[in-house]
Amino acid sequence: MKVFVMDAINEDVSRKIAESYEVILPPLSRKLDWKKEADAIIVRTFPITKQDLKECTNLKIIAKHGVGVDNIDLIAAQENNIIVTNTPGENSNSVAEYVITLILSLFRNLPSYNNLVKQGKWHSLSTSFELHEKTIGLIGLGDIGSKVSRILKNGFNANIIAYDPFTPDEQFKKLEVQKVNSISELLLACDVISLHVPLNEATKNMISLPELLKMKPTSILINVSRGGVVNEDDLYKALNEKIIFAAACDVFQQEPVEKNSPLLTLENFIASPHIGGSSIESLKRMGLGALKNIDAVFNNQIPPNQIV
Ligand code: NAD
Description:
Layout (H helix, E strand, L loop, with lengths): L1 E4 L5 H8 L3 E3 L3 H4 L2 H4 L2 E4 L6 H6 L5 E4 L9 H6 L3 E3 L6 H16 L2 H9 L16 E5 L3 H14 L2 E5 L5 H7 L2 E2 L3 H7 L2 E4 L13 H6 L5 E4 L8 H9 L5 E4 L19 E3 L8 H19 L10
Parallel strand pairs: 1-2, 1-3, 3-4, 4-5, 6-7, 6-9, 7-8, 9-10, 10-11, 11-12
Helix pairs in contact: 1-13, 6-8
This protein binds nicotinamide-adenine-dinucleotide.
């Protein structure tokens, strides 16, 4: 059986896959004709289109290494009887810790101070905020949103408000998170807004100028969900005109983000290359999770995390 790995994965995991299967790693996997040769593929952000799936001859499973499956045409996979799996929960610690990193970095102006000192400048007048007892708004209270809420509550005595019409009320109660029924309520009240929703028709451009205008001028926005959830032109306007204090994005409408994106010129903006979910530990867990799903399919069992 041939397993094509389309994006870089942890080396220990590649070796483990090679104990049972013939493994083709990138960049070779992208050069060969995976659509004709692969029995299974592992993808992180590599896009799988309707046309790709039509051309596949042996492919039985697309094992997503991660949670969000918006890079895979799920309807076409179903039409072509190809199983799609993911690895929920395996990177949520990593993303949740990264959210805290971004909030603290923005509140304390860390990138600017780092740059100043490296340029030989010493500027000690602080224009930064504490996170202690701030009000945090989470949009999406699934795996990652829930972990973020626990860290903020336990570590910073923060007051957490969340908007997620699909999460049961018991989860809000268990986490001691206040439930709101509209995004507007959350935007008006919070010092930090952090996004933890999948990208779909309902969440596309969920944060655009009207929403940014409702946020406090001292507030910050964190997007570690998906690029399309925030309208980047509107975010630039809000940051440039100091409608909000600062923002950080780990994900962009187009990845890699264009070098000349106006957002990248701003002092009050932090960018990172979609690495929220990628720690050494989580990469191993996600890789092994993808392998478990593949093993199950080749042993005629139901994979632990089947989506299609
Ligand atoms: P999850 O499925 O556990 O949680 C998503 C939550 O969003 C669910 O509770 C759902 O009810 C809620 N939701 C869906 N549509 C909504 C809407 N219209 N309004 C409000 N809430 C809505 O997923 P998760 O593991 O918490 O991950 C969330 C997202 O984070 C993923 O879909 C993925 O896009 C992104 N992610 C990014 C990285 C990264 O490296 N930056 C890593 C992992 C996940």
